[in-house]
Amino acid sequence: MMRFRDFDWLLIGVALLIAVIGVAEIHNATIGSKFASVWVRQIYYLVAGVLLLVVMSQIDYKLILESSPWLYVISVAGLIGVLVVGKAIFHSRRWIPVAGAHLQVSEFVKLVIIVVVARFCGEARLNLAWRDVLCVSALVAVPAGLVLLEPDLGTALTYIPVAVVGLWLGGLRWRQLGWLTLAAALMLPVAWHGLHPYQKARLEGFMQPQSDPLGSGYQVLQSKIAVGAGGVWGQGMAQGSQTRGEFLPVPHTDFIFAAFSEEYGFVGALVLLGLYLLLLMRLIQNAQLAPDRSAGMVVMGVVAVLAFHVLVNVGMVVGLMPVAGIPLPLMSSGGSSLLFTFAALGLVMNIRMARFVN
Amino acid sequence: MEIVDRNDRIPAGRMAVVQYGIVLGFIVLGLGLWQLQILQARKYAALAEQNRVRMEPIPAPRGKIYDARGRLLVDNYPSFSAYLQRDGSHDWRADLPLIASGLQLALPDLEAQVAKFRGSPAYQPIPIKSDITESDEEFIAAHRDQFPELEAIMASRRLYPKNGFAASLIGYVGEPTARQLDSGQYRPGAVVGKSGLEQYYNQQLMGVDGERRVLVNSHGRVVGTLLDQAPVPGKDLHLTLDENLQMAAELAIGDRPGAVVALDPRTGGVLALVSRPTFDPNLFAQGLSSAQWQQWSNNPEHPLLDKAIQAQLAPGSVFKLVLSVAGLQENIAETKKVDCTGVFYYYGHPYHCWIAATGGEHGVLGIQQAITQSCDIYFYTLGTEMGIDTIDKYAFALGLGRATGIDLPGEASGLVPTPQWKEAHYHLPWYKGETVSVAIGQGPVTVTPVQLARMVGGIASGGHFPRPHVDADATNTAGFDFPLTQTTVDTITAGMQGVVNPGGTAASAHLQGVDFGGKTGTAQTISNAKLRTITGSHSQYVDNAWFVGVWPLKNPEISVCVLFQRGAEGPLAARIASQVIKAFYQEQTAAPSTGEAQRRLGVSGRQAGASTSGTGGEAALGPVPGK
Q: What's the gap between Cα A125 and its chain centre?
């Protein structure tokens, strides 16, 4: 039953505030460009997201946890389906047409992975055996590998923190962590060879921005210029010259934080970062208050994904991270990402309300 | 660290690690923002400004050049140049190969052109192709997104008269030198006078370029204007030159190497000024090919030199006018008679009169006949009697041995040799025999055509030597005065009148009914002694022919100097001069002149320019007679 008084209104309020700021920024950053009408679509997605949140909050999370093996199988099948029949857009097969919109399957798989990992790590003993570690790694690696084949490196990467945080909270020992880190380090050269040329170029562009000023290095440079030119107070709403002059690439999606920072400066950027931090801390609080370990792990899975998104996206915008194609949750234009976030928040609401049942 | 939670909760310590990890990550992001927006805000604001603000020069139209009657000599025509913007964050270097092929330039040439402007500030766009074609313009317009650094800027180009008409006088324009660019004196792509009037009056003609600062987006499209500063057009130049007379002079000398200078002795204004061979300045305006430049540079006749003011050559017998003035002013020559037997002995050494080569002699003659017949013996006698110091004194007084101060760049001063000069340069004393050579304008004495034109006009007008000038608005043109006695003037003009009449050295240059006169000169380009040591062809050592003349003989209105290099003898030069004087005489006596009428009607008297084929002049001269 709906019990709106048990909703975390602060959490939802912060999330909606960020999303509304996002819509406004999408509008301001695309005035006069071919994306000028995108903000309207973003409002539709936002409304759909809120509805999704309400729906998710009404489905018992225990039911979801119990059916997670089936959800996992369906997800993997869905990802394979995307690879086979998915419509090729932007050279990546990651969308399937649903009700006139193109939905990104991998975004919703994220939710399933969060649930699967939470269930596995939540049920396990606090002393994780190597077998458990390998199981969790494999559970994440299979869908991640499929997403990588699409190819969508950014989304595949977002699965990893779910596994890392799940294992950590599930009781991973320091020694195991050490070995895993070493293994990951040894995998790096292999991974490098597996990267697509444009992905390599992005990494090279990050390491030496001058080597490729036209490619991703150019994008990051323009992003840093936009952020830096914002100064303390910003250039004013819809007044960013980097954004309006179309020097900043995709200012409504991956680089929306740069567009915002140019307009509202250091002060505005800090306030926005503060809102995200508030959102994450509030989520962690919800995890601490969760009725059981698995429920807490689900919430922490959501924290892991959202924190990873914010840190990598803003890190890229300020030039601290390579360009990975990871959107800023709640703000970047795009339905799948927004719907995922609200669905995840709905799940958190569900868990929160379950606390009051018992 | 491991805490077993009885309530089936996640270990609080592990939660805290995640929590602090996230906070730490946010602190790093905050520091990143601090770095960009506080510490380096100015740098990035400047970069943003470079991105969006583009400076476009608006070239000032160069001043036009008109002749004395308001006829347009040098005009401008609109043209577009392709410029490269080097600021902003676009990597223009990577685009050079595509730009080169798009604009049909060779990549090494384009790279060399870009390299030339390394020293110029990056906010100044640099020219990469001038006078671009319509297809070039289309290429630039169609590739705005791909090459936002490329743009077409309008410039006015020089349009000079065809066929090198008055080219040596007008000069040409070109790009600033590397030093001028580095000093910031001129912007890249500026049009700067390189020679002639274009160089001398460059500042006046250039004007001040305007500037447009526009806001552009990443595709190079203009989205706003910050500043639109109109250029200050260059000031027009109005010359003392007469286009018709210039044309006559050009036709008269034809293709012969040498120079023609015509001055107004009353004002010093240049009426015509020709140097041969010459060049087509339009080729410079369009961007000279290196092959053409090589050809002009390596030509032994130096087509880029303005011989009218830069050729320093022995004057030959024209110098006898200096001796005549000296002798008459010193009261030696007026009554002096000399008997020419064809040879003159000085300290036992024989010096011959030119007439001895024809087997004749002049007999007894006075100063006036000596001028008319150019008798060497008379002037040997007069010169040795006066001595080198007196000759030098009058040579200097008549304006030789120093630049006239004409408003053209690179004027040579010529040389009046003095014992002091010889001592200083050769550490040798002056030999008396050298005075004999100097007396007939040989030896080390050298002059420029413009010096001789002013000298003959000055002598005929009683010692008035205004500064030669081409700009009608030139100030400080008074020059100097060296008053001559009426006897000096009358005697010399009478002698000069005889030169172009039967019995004179240039009788064939006679103009029926025109009261003009002059003096011939035949100058060796090499001493006889040296000539004997050279085997093979002597054609390059053929004597230079000179003629200086005035019209009318009393209170002259025009003085002319003609240099015909390797023209062998004076009469040839005299007949070129007589063509010029005839043209001037006809223009002065025909009233009202057609040019005057055209100016009143507001009709441009501009003509395509004179042909330098020389056929007209050749036909007018007819066959060359022996002496």
A: 29
Q: Is A236 on the interface with B (CB under 8 A)?
A: no
For tokens 């060296």, the residue is B482
Let me know: does A8 contact A282? Beta carbons within 8 Å: yes
- Spatial separation of the C-alpha atoms in residues A253 and A72, rounded to whole Å: 29
Separation between Cα atoms, residue B61 and residue B45, nearest integer Å: 35
Residue window 120-139, chain A: list those with CB within 8 Å of chain B. 126
Q: How far apart, in whole angstroms, are the C-alpha atoms of residue A55 and residue A278?
A: 24
Q: What is the phi-psi region of residue B566: left when phi exceeds 0, alpha when psi lies from -120 to 50, beta otherwise?
A: left
Say whether A246 and B218 touch across the interface (CB within 8 A).
yes
The alpha carbon of residue A143 is apart from the nearest alpha carbon of chain B, in Å, by 24
In one-letter notation, the amino acid at residue B545 is: A
Angle of CA points A194, A196, A201, to nearest 5°? 120
Residue of chain A whose alpha carbon sits nearest to that of B42: A229
Contact A273 B94 (CB under 8 A): no
CA distance A305 to A309: 6
Mean pLDDT across the stretch B67-83? Answer: 91
Tokens 């010399």 belong to residue: B492
Residue of B nearest to A272 (CA): B30
Angle (CA) A152-A154-A160 rounded to 5° is 110
For residue B239, what is the DSSP state?
A: B
Task: Indicate yes or no: CB of A228 within 8 angstroms of CB of B45.
Answer: yes
Chain B residues within 8 A of A222 when measuring between CB atoms: 51, 89
**Sequence spans of domains, chain A:** 4-357
Question: Comparing C-alpha atoms, which of B190, B210, B219 is closest to residue B126?
Answer: B190
Mean predicted confidence (pLDDT) in B224-245? 91
Closest residue in B to A213 (Cα–Cα): B91
Helix B432-439 × helix B388-397 angle, to 10°: 40
Dihedral (Cα; A121, A124, A126, A132), 10-degree rounding: -80
Q: What is the DSSP string of A198-260?
A: HHHHHHHHHH-GGG-TTTHHHHHHHHHHHHHHHTTT-S-TT--HHHHTT-SSSTTTTTHHHHH
Residue A228: what pLDDT?
A: 93
Name the nearest CA neighbour of B246 among B470, B405, B477: B470
Residues of B in contact with A318 (CB under 8 A): 29, 32-33, 35-36
Alpha helices in A130-173 (DSSP H): 130-149, 153-170
Smallest Cα distance from B92 to chain A, Å:
10
Residues of A in contact with B5 (CB under 8 A): 293
* Chain B residues near residue A271 by CB distance under 8 angstroms: none
**Chain A contact set for B13 (CB, 8 A):** none
Beta-carbon count within 10 A of B232 CB: 13
Q: pTM of the predicted model, to two decimals?
A: 0.70
List the domains of chain B with CATH numbers: 1-39 (no CATH), 53-238 (3.90.1310.10), 243-279+305-621 (3.40.710.10)
Q: Splitting chain A (358 residues) into consecutive groups of 10 residues, what average pLDDT does each group show?
A: 76 96 95 88 95 92 91 91 65 54 78 93 74 90 88 85 91 86 84 74 61 64 91 90 84 93 96 97 93 91 96 94 88 92 94 74
